[in-house]
Structure of Ribonuclease P protein component:
Amino acid sequence: MKEERLRKNPEFRLVYRRGKSLSTSLLVLYVFKNNKGINRVGISVSKKVGKSVVRSRVKRLISESVRLNKQGLKQGYDLVFVARSASKDKSYKEIENSVKYLFKKSGLNNVEKNITISN
């Protein structure tokens, strides 16, 4: 679990500088290929979003929606989620929909369609 997180400032800066960004009204996602075989996730919530209780709540909502939706993602990427100030009063479902949309938009979904051949 611990190795699946981005923690150090240089790791975040590398993803910001060299990764590609995608956004919704609630979140911004930076994606950078790390060649480590695992996905590492970092979450950034600035003081613009709110006081510490609000920021912690937003972080928990984002991390929980990532945890529940990480199955089926391509491996080997660093992901940084940046919460926008609009996310402070949103429900879990709205945050989760935003995370799912960003995964889909970034091309990280490993969508394997089972095609059945009928005779």
In short: The longest helix spans residues 52-69. The two ends are 46 Å apart (CA to CA).
